[in-house]
Design brief:
The chain has two helices and 31 strands. The chain has 470 residues and is mainly β.
Length: 470
């Protein structure tokens, strides 16, 4: 009798579970993932953007991309491309591993490390399971430390070393190439407490070689500054501080927190630095949501005196929010560089038109998806004009905060077309809708066929997209 009763109870529990799995998911997640153009709100009710003023159109092209999965495991948010073993072929690097071309055999740089930056509630686990229980590697209670990967021959021994910028407030290292495939890589700490979610590898100092540009702090509680870390021809590295006397920020600032880019904004031939603020939303009227003063976004104007002394002047840009990497280019071909970036934890891809007197006009390119946590700029179609590559970062806040975190993980490239009236139009082309992007996109000719390809590390693993022409 007791056995029969237990079987009945188990059967009832199983039936209830099936009903919940079938019907509860859309009910629980409807307000969480609402993409309605009427509400346009995040989970905390803040307005994101005004809808229905997109500047993109769907495009057609003879370009497609062959998708190759190198790894299904979630252990990075970025990937770079370099010839690690000096065999003349480009390999893929993630900060924890490198993948040897052409078979993409995985080799360890360091054991994957994870940081539990948030502990989800039971209800969060229930929602995520109901929505994504069948998707492999979609959920983790922790971020992998290796977010960004760059490379250089740091010790000048003729072998490419790996530069890894870890998750916000973790660290910034270079790993010494052991010159054999499976030997241990020696770890060298460059800076601790890196505080930025979109560091860049670019030549802001005009040396002819890129530097890693990121925010960092000396201790966990110290105020943050912006730095350019140079890897000079003599070997090793040199840390340069980027700061201005006129910043006027309060104590405790940790800058920049979101969005970082480089380009000649004022047209003087020197490279300037631009970054976003720490707030992630626009209100219904298109204004940035209220934020702390020290989290303001803007740009550092670089100056070099006649005697060679470098200095910086700070300029506020309104409105700025928590963007991904900020691309600097002349969108409307009026002789002044503009800005393009996506909202890392909100909705939309934007461009900021540079007006006179340090004023900026915001334009919406595409608001049909959220969490554009990585952008890159490259000439995909070879027409001599830069294109924009971006996409959706699935679960950028681990499934707990951002709007539409479980939505389709798109990867797009946008061709910028200037119309007869001088207004730019952004022609959107789908690359893939299965894995999205992480925090970093690398656009390089991976297979040396003369066409630009794409490498990215995401919550769905490590992937490359090889360009093909038809």
């Amino acid at each position: 009798m007791m056995i029969k009763k237990s079987i009945k109870i188990l059967l009832v529990i199983f039936i209830v579970f099936l009903l919940v799995a079938e019907f509860a998911s859309p009910l629980l997640l409807k307000p969480y993932n609402d993409m309605s153009p009427i509400t346009n709100t995040s989970t905390n009710g803040q307005y994101i953007i005004a809808a229905n003023d997109n500047e993109y159109v769907e495009g057609t092209s003879n370009i497609s991309f062959k998708h190759i999965e190198l790894d299904s495991a979630y252990h990075t948010e970025g990937a770079s491309v370099a010839d690690i073993n000096n065999d003349g072929l480009n390999d893929i690097v993630t900060g924890h591993y490198w993948y040897e071309a052409p078979s993409w055999t995985r080799h360890t740089i360091r054991a994957p490390l994870y940081d539990a930056v948030a502990i989800p509630k039971l209800s969060d686990h229930v929602k995520i399971f109901l929505e994504n229980g069948t998707k492999k590697n979609i959920w983790s209670k922790a971020y992998p430390l290796a977010f960004f990967s760059f490379h250089d021959d740091v010790n000048k021994d003729g072998w490419i070393d790996v530069i890894a910028v870890d998750i916000t407030s973790a660290g910034f290292y270079w790993f010494e190439n052991p010159k054999t495939n499976d030997a241990a890589w020696t770890e060298h700490l460059i800076m601790n407490y890196t505080r930025n979610e979109s560091p860049i590898f670019a030549d802001v100092l005009g040396t002819g070689k890129p530097q890693v540009i990121t925010g960092a702090a000396q201790t966990a509680d110290a105020s943050g500054k912006l730095y350019a870390v140079e890897f000079p021809p003599s070997g090793g590295y040199v840390i340069h501080t980027i700061e201005a006397d006129n910043e006027g920020r309060s104590n405790g600032a940790t800058l920049p927190s979101h969005g970082l880019g480089m380009g000649d904004i004022d047209g003087d031939g020197l490279q300037d630095i631009v970054f976003g603020s720490g707030e992630g939303f626009f209100d219904r009227q298109g204004n940035p949501a209220q934020r702390q003063s020290y989290d303001e976004g803007g740009w550092y104007q670089q100056q070099i005196s006649d005697d060679g002394v470098r200095s910086w002047i700070w300029h506020v840009i309104e409105p700025m929010v928590s963007f991904s990497q900020i691309q600097v280019l002349d969108v409307n071909e009026d002789g002044k560089n503009d800005l393009i970036s996506g909202m890392a934890h909100g909705r939309g891809l934007f461009w900021f038109e540079q007006d006179d007197n340090d004023k900026w006009i915001r334009h919406l390119i595409d608001d049909t998806y959220t969490q554009l946590h990585a952008t890159e700029m490259a000439d995909i179609d070879g027409d001599g004009r830069m294109d924009i590559i971006t996409g959706k970062t699935p679960l950028a806040h681990m499934g707990l905060k951002d709007p539409d975190e479980f939505g389709t993980p798109y990867l797009y490239w946008y061709k910028i077309i200037k119309t007869v009236d001088g207004k730019p139009v952004f022609e959107r082309h789908l690359i893939d809708d299965n894995v999205g992007v992480g925090r970093q996109i690398s656009v390089v000719d991976i297979n040396n066929d003369g066409l630009l390809d794409i490498a990215s590390g995401t919550r769905y693993g490590v992937h490359i997209f090889l360009q093909e022409r038809h």
